[in-house]
């Protein structure tokens, strides 16, 4: 593997997968000295911070979207108005992905405390039953 490819792969392992430099060195057969140089030279810590921030922002946006969709569907049900099938389908897809997003984030950043802003799979099933009438 060319050194440039190893640099990119090492950066990805450090920034996105939260691996320690020792682990990365063993996995890619690189010295700790090289990894520390790259980490400083290419500002991996800053990139890691930005990556985490973007990921958190995406999670919050996805949750807000789910909440808005749920409010709209609930209002439609309360008013006995027709609900577009595509809206229900989209809402279901968003709901299905929230627990997956939570699991992914937990696996990436095990050191962060768990946030309680996510819906569990049990809560998703309860919403499906009570709000949407899906068994």
In total, the number of domains comes to: 2
Low-confidence region ranges: none
Mean pLDDT: 82
Overall strand count: 0
CA gyration radius, whole angstroms: 21 Å
Protein structure class: mainly alpha
What is the overall shape?
A: elongated
Sequence of secondary-structure elements = HHHHHH
| Most strands sheet | none
Q: Give the N-to-C terminal Cα separation.
A: 51 Å
What share of residues are in beta strands? under 5%
Structural overview:
With 135 residues, this protein is mostly helical. The chain folds into 2 domains: 3-42; 56-130. Helix content is 74%, strand content 0%. It contains 6 helices and no strands. It has helices at residues 3-15, 21-28, 32-41, 44-78, 85-108, 121-130. α1 runs antiparallel to α2. It is elongated, with a radius of gyration of 21 Å. The relative contact order is 0.10. The mean pLDDT is 82.
What is the fold's blueprint, element by element?
Elements (H helix, E strand, L loop, with lengths): L2 H13 L5 H8 L3 H10 L2 H35 L6 H24 L12 H10 L5
Helix pairs in contact: 1-2, 4-5
């Amino acid at each position: 593997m060319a050194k440039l490819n190893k640099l990119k792969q090492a950066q990805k392992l450090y920034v996105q997968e939260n691996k320690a430099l020792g682990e990365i060195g063993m996995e890619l057969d690189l010295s700790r000295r090289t990894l520390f140089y790259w980490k400083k030279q290419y500002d991996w810590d800053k990139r890691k911070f930005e990556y985490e921030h973007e990921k958190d922002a995406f999670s919050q946006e996805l949750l807000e979207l789910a909440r808005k969709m749920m409010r709209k569907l609930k209002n439609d049900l309360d008013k006995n108005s027709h609900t577009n099938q595509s809206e229900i389908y989209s809402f279901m897809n968003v709901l299905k992905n929230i627990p997956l997003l939570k699991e992914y984030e937990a696996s990436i950043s095990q050191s962060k405390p768990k946030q309680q802003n996510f819906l569990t799979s049990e809560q998703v099933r309860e919403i499906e039953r009570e709000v949407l009438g899906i068994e």
